[in-house]
Amino acid sequence: MNQAARSVTATTDFTPAQPNVSVIMVAYRTGESLEKAIRSVLDDPAVNELVMVDNGSAEATAEGLRVLARDEPRVVLLQGHGNIGFARGANRGMLAAHGHYVVFLNPDAFLQAGCVDALIRGLNGQPPRSLVGACILNPDGREQRGSRRGEVNVLSAVMTLSQLSRRFPNLDAYEIYRNHDVMPEGLVPIPTISGACFAASLEDFKALGGFDEGYFLHVEDVDLCWRARRSGGSVLFQPKAKVVHLGHTSKSSPWRVEMHKGLGLTRYLLKRAENLPAYLAALILLPLIMLTAMVRPVVWHVRGRRA
């Protein structure tokens, strides 16, 4: 994607004839993995359209995306709006999509064979406002920590952040991350799926209001799952839909990314607090959340040097 640069602030004028599946991808300085992620989408026979939301890539990458949209009729490109955050970018993609179903995919995630088909089949027969999430894998083939998650509330956040739920087996029910559970053989309900790759009908996603744009980056997927379940929809994990997710590929500062995670989690806990004690508990938890978020990049750096 290193073609000569030229200024374009528009979308493609291509309108496909009622595509069944639109993949929506939001990119911001993703790096070399972006091209591979796009190729995994365009190579999937179940995909009819790719809505590419460019939140401010480097000019060489931005020009490469323009060339791609010009040459590939299945690509709809949104550019020129700058870094407006993931939630707002994804919602712009939603408004530009033509498919009956939408699949959201991170720009550093690679669809594996049959993934999109398995996600869409998982939606069949589900109640309105349902979501189906993929099984997110690390490059070594192990399930990623955030692939499937339990209920996210003040109590589970305290138990998980303090690691008490890992140290004491009787507290395991309060652990948010469920990748240590036995892998199910088929579609199963779960409180929270990963935003790295999931599917919904376009109508249902719009009915949910899309992502809450009050989140800039991270935790918007947790919020979406909570709202889907609260509205009567199902949130489901599809182990047969596999995606390899690199993670940590953005050129953004890891401290900035983790800060947004901390702020997002705090916002979510305050938002879902149903009474004054729950609201006060979320406020009290704020220092622990932000401290954990800021310390995490340091731990990664130290472990990287030791490796």
Brief synopsis:
With 307 residues, this protein is of the alpha/beta class.
Describe the structure in your own words:
By secondary structure, the protein is of the alpha/beta class. It is 39% helix and 18% strand. The protein has ten helices and eleven strands. Helix 9 runs antiparallel to helix 10. It is globular. The N terminus is likely disordered.
- Could you tell me the radius of gyration in angstroms? 19 Å
Examine the coordinates and then state which fold CATH places here, giving the name of the CATH topology of the largest domain: Spore Coat Polysaccharide Biosynthesis Protein SpsA, Chain A
**CATH homologous superfamily assignment of the largest domain:** Spore Coat Polysaccharide Biosynthesis Protein SpsA, Chain A
At the first level of CATH, the class of the largest domain is Alpha Beta
